[in-house]
Design brief:
single chain; about 325 residues; eight-stranded parallel beta barrel; 13 helices; globular; binds glyceraldehyde-3-phosphate; binds 1,3-dihydroxyacetonephosphate; binds zinc ion
C-alpha cells in the first residue's frame, strides 16, 4: 500500500473513537519494530521523523526504508509524518520527498527554541496548509508551548500561561485550516517530565476537555506522551545506566484524552529506553559478543513490544483493515471542495 493521508487515518480514528500512536524513527530497526507491531495488532501506523532524524538518515535512506515497509506490509495503512517542522521550508522539503503529513510547529521560531507570537504562528501555519492541502498532504499545527509546569516553565508569571488557550485555539484552527492541533497541557519531551506521578495540577487534562468542547471536529495531538515506565528505567539502571527516578504520562490519562478528541499520540522516549535497556543487557550478559545483530535484534524486539502495548492501549489495534485509503489526489480534491 502506498503511504497514505494522515487526515484520513485520524478521521477514521475519530469515527471509531480510538487514538493512533505516532512513533519516531531514525533507522531500519525502529521502522521494522513499528511495522511488526502494526502487523501483529492489525493497526494503522504513523511513522514520524524529526529534523534530527532526517539529517541523521540523510533523508533518502529514511524514505526508501519507508517504501520498503509499504511494500512488505501492504495490509497496513501507513503515514510518513514530519515531526516538529520548524519552518515552511522544512515542511516543503518533506512534502517534496514524499512525506504524506507535516507538522508546522509555529509555536516556536525557526530556531526551534524561541516562543513565537500568535500572529507568526498563524501566518507560517497557514502558508503550509495552502501548499500541503493542494497535494493532499495533512498538516498538524501547535499552539502553546510544551514544557513542564513543575520545572518553573513560566515561573514568576502564571505557571499555566504557556498552555494552550482554548479560545485562541478556536481562532487558530479557523484562521489556519489545519487538520490536527498539538496542544500544550504540561507535558515535555524526553524522560524527565515529572518528579512524581503527575496530578491535575501538572498534567492538565482538563484543558483537553475544554478545547475538545470548543473544537469537536479538530483532531487533537498529545506530544511528549511517553509513559517512561518504571520497568524500563529499572532495566537501564540494572545494566549500568544512570537514569534518575522520573515519571511520564500515565496510559490512563492518555486514554482519557482519547475519549476527549485526542487522535494522535507522540511517543519516542519509551522506544529509545526499550532499545537502550535491551542493548545494555546484552553488553553486560555477553561481553564477548561483538556482532551488532546480537544487540540490535533484542533492541528491535524490545521496541516492538512497547509499540504493540501502546497500539493496544490507544485502541488502534484491529483497525488496519477498516477502510480503503484514498489516493492523495482524491484527498486533495476533497480539500478543494
Ligand atoms: O520531538 C522530539 C522527538 O523525540 C524527536 O527527537 O529531535 O532528538 O530526533 P529528536
Ligand atoms: P516523548 O519524548 O514523550 O516520547 O515525546 C515524543 C514527541 O512528542 C515527539 O514529537
Ligand atoms: Zn513533540
Amino acid at each position: 500500500m502506498p503511504l497514505v493521508s494522515m487526515r484520513q487515518l485520524l478521521d477514521e480514528a475519530a469515527k471509531g473513537g480510538y487514538g493512533v500512536g505516532a512513533f519516531n524513527v531514525n533507522n531500519m530497526e525502529q521502522i521494522q519494530a513499528i511495522m511488526e507491531a502494526a502487523r501483529e495488532t492489525k493497526s494503522p501506523a504513523i511513522v514520524q521523523a524529526s529534523r534530527g532524524a532526517r539529517s541523521y538518515t540523510n533523508d533518502r535512506f529514511l524514505y526508501h526504508l519507508m517504501l520498503a515497509a509499504a511494500e512488505l506490509y501492504p495490509e497496513i495503512p501507513m503515514v510518513l509524518h514530519q515531526d516538529h517542522g520548524n519552518s515552511p521550508a522544512t515542511c516543503r522539503s518533506a512534502i517534496e520527498m514524499g512525506f504524506t503529513s507535516v507538522m508546522m510547529d509555529g509555536s516556536l521560531m525557526p530556531d526551534g527554541k524561541t516562543p513565537s507570537t500568535f500572529e507568526y504562528n498563524v501566518q507560517a501555519t497557514r502558508e503550509v496548509v495552502e501548499m500541503a492541502h493542494e497535494k493532499g498532504i495533512t498538516v498538524e499545527g501547535e499552539l502553546g508551548t510544551l514544557g513542564g509546569i513543575e520545572d518553573g516553565h513560566g515561573a514568576g508569571v502564571d505557571p499555566l500561561s504557556h498552555l494552550t488557550n482554548p479560545d485562541q485555539a478556536v481562532e487558530f484552527v479557523g484562521r489556519t485550516g489545519i487538520d490536527a492541533l498539538a496542544v500544550a497541557i504540561g507535558t515535555s519531551h524526553g524522560a524527565y517530565k515529572f518528579s512524581k506521578k503527575p496530578t491535575g495540577q501538572t498534567l492538565v487534562m482538563e484543558r483537553i476537555i475544554e478545547i475538545h468542547k470548543k473544537l469537536p471536529h479538530t483532531h487533537l495531538v498529545m506530544h511528549g506522551s511517553s509513559s517512561v515506565p518504571q520497568d524500563l528505567q529499572d532495566i537501564i539502571n540494572k545494566y549500568g545506566g544512570k537514569m534518575r527516578q522520573t515519571y511520564g504520562v500515565p496510559i490512563e490519562e492518555i486514554q482519557l484524552g482519547i475519549k476527549n478528541g485526542v487522535r494522535k499520540i507522540n511517543v519516542d522516549t519509551d522506544n529509545r529506553m526499550a532499545m537502550t535497556g535491551a542493548i545494555r543487557k546484552v553488553f553486560v550478559e555477553k561481553p564477548e559478543a561483538f556482532d551488532p545483530r546480537d544487540y540490535m535484534k533484542p533492541a528491535r524486539e524490545a521496541m516492538k513490544e512497547v509499540v504493540k502495548a501502546r497500539m493496544i492501549a490507544f485502541g488502534q489495534a484491529g483497525h488496519a483493515g477498516d477502510y480503503t485509503p484514498f489516493s492523495l489526489e482524491e484527498v486533495a480534491r476533497r480539500y478543494k471542495q
